């Protein structure tokens, strides 16, 4: 894709929804979470969160950061994989692993870090599950001259030593979550000193840390509207690339935990579906946290109930979920925008077994045919695309399947080795 055709605006699907997105609200008891948001989130991100403007300008400085981070990124046809599967389907994957930290997360990290610097903050706090978001924010903060504090789900912190060191190389301080640094962390460690943690707990720790330091601000890597907005550069590029090819996808696939990579890839195509285009959307999840198969209701986005209530598909913010190697998918709730689209009937989901053997075996097929090593989370996207391509083989249907590979797995080989017995 020519550099001069890269997106210069983010796409906001709220302008095209058939009815307004259910707004956040406060619980019946306790202090107002909504009134506290300006103390926790960036002012510009809060404005974007509730905007119904269809196109939001990407500041020139952020565009330059995107160029440095390798945007636009290629859309690749998986011809060797098609041949080995013997499918009549055409398979195209978006290569989000071509980024300095190896994942799509830099798209919103760069935007949030730049806004934080402009608003006068000195330190960013956040959570991370699989580690890609923490690495991305550490990278972005380093580029703009900010400090970073990362609370990392302990179950993953304990086995991804290289990624932990990568974050530190960017200057971040990294703590296993639950940690002894916060009230919520200390309470959980008192109950269980070996608590494996969860993304919801890590979110609570990042929020608590930011709330007690006026020079710090919390940044979130998924779920909220402004995060998905920043990620739409993925889908906007992909739509233009399909136009250049003279193709259009019949099926759009990606993995889904909180929803940032799925939303970024799919939302520009959802706009077409809302206006009558025939296109199917499929989210690949784990049975450890099949949030899109939960209840559509208001729930907290974090364990400690610091956030407002969001209308979303949820398993419950206190739910215990077994750690998996694709731990970025282990979150109790799905982004409100994607939850709303599922509620309206636009989004389907499939959840793969917790042992991950099927998913990683499919990823091995992809690796041996295409050569690229996907992150464990992205392996779910790959597995789903292959499964759908094999269904097309059985039916003889010549469909176009687009899927997003949200990150590389160069720091995740221990997970592949354990699951596949390498």
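^ structure tokens above, recovered residues below v
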């Amino acid at each position: 894709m020519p550099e001069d055709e890269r997106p210069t605006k983010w796409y906001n699907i709220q302008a095209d929804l058939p009815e307004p997105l259910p707004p956040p609200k406060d619980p019946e008891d306790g202090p107002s979470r909504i009134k506290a948001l300006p103390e926790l989130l960036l002012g510009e991100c809060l404005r974007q969160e509730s905007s119904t403007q269809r196109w939001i300008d990407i500041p020139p400085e952020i565009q330059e950061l995107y160029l440095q981070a390798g945007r636009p990124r290629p859309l690749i046809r998986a011809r060797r994989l098609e041949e080995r599967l013997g499918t009549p389907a055409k398979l195209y994957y978006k290569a989000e692993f071509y980024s300095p930290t190896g994942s799509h997360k830099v798209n919103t990290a760069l935007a949030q870090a730049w806004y934080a610097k402009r608003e006068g903050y000195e330190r960013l706090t956040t959570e991370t599950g699989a580690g890609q978001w923490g690495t991305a924010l550490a990278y972005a903060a380093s580029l703009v001259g900010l400090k970073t504090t990362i609370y990392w789900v302990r179950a993953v912190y304990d086995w991804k030593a290289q990624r932990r060191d990568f974050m530190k190389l960017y200057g971040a301080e990294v703590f296993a979550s639950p940690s002894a640094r916060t009230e919520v962390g200390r309470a959980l460690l008192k109950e269980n000193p070996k608590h494996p943690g969860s993304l919801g707990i890590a979110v609570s720790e990042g929020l608590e840390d930011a709330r007690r330091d006026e020079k710090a601000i919390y940044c979130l890597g998924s779920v909220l509207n402004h995060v998905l907005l920043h990620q739409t550069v993925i889908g906007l590029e992909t739509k233009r690339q399909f136009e250049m090819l003279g193709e259009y996808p019949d099926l759009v696939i990606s993995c889904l935990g909180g929803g940032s990579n799925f939303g970024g890839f799919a939302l520009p195509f959802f706009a077409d579906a809302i206006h009558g285009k025939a296109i199917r959307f499929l989210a690949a999840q784990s049975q450890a946290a099949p949030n899109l198969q939960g209840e559509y209701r208001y729930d907290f986005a974090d364990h400690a109930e610091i956030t407002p209530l969001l209308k979303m598909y949820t398993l419950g913010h206190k739910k215990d979920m077994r750690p998996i190697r694709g731990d970025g998918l282990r979150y109790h709730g799905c982004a409100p925008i994607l939850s709303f689209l599922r509620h309206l009937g636009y989004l389907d989901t499939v959840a793969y077994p917790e042992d991950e053997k099927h998913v990683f075996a499919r990823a091995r097929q992809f690796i041996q045919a295409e050569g690229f090593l996907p992150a464990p989370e992205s392996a779910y996207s790959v597995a789903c695309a292959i499964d759908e391509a094999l269904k097309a083989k059985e039916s003889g249907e010549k469909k176009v399947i687009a899927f997003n590979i949200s990150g590389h797995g160069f720091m995740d080989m221990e997970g592949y080795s354990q699951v596949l017995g390498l």
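The CA atoms of residues 157 and 164 lie 7 Å apart.
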